[in-house]
Fold FBD domain-containing protein.
Amino acid sequence: MMKFVGVVRNVRHLTLSSGFLEANLADVEDDWDAGFSLTCMYSHLKVIEIGGVEGCDNELKFVRFMLKNSMVLEKVNLFFRSTSDSLDGGRQIRRFKRNLRAMPTASSSIKMNFL
């Protein structure tokens, strides 16, 4: 599970890779509120960038959690892996994008970029 050392405050820009999400969030399962209890971290967050996105469940759960809890979030940039060009990967990415667009958000001014 992901652990923070010290107090994390006033984070405005968060950049992660999909590999980080897979390796560090596998044990969080569906209890995201308990796994990410540092709500002060989200109060200033304006930009989230995730590289190497494959459209997996952990990525979707993480982004859903961030959309739900980041009140001033303005931009989400998702950089998809080149392996998503395969037929199955393409379907998974289309489903992932569709699910993200349908999710409720805490901020009313989010621009989502799929790159």
Summary: The two ends are 28 Å apart (CA to CA). The chain has one domain: 13-23+35-114.
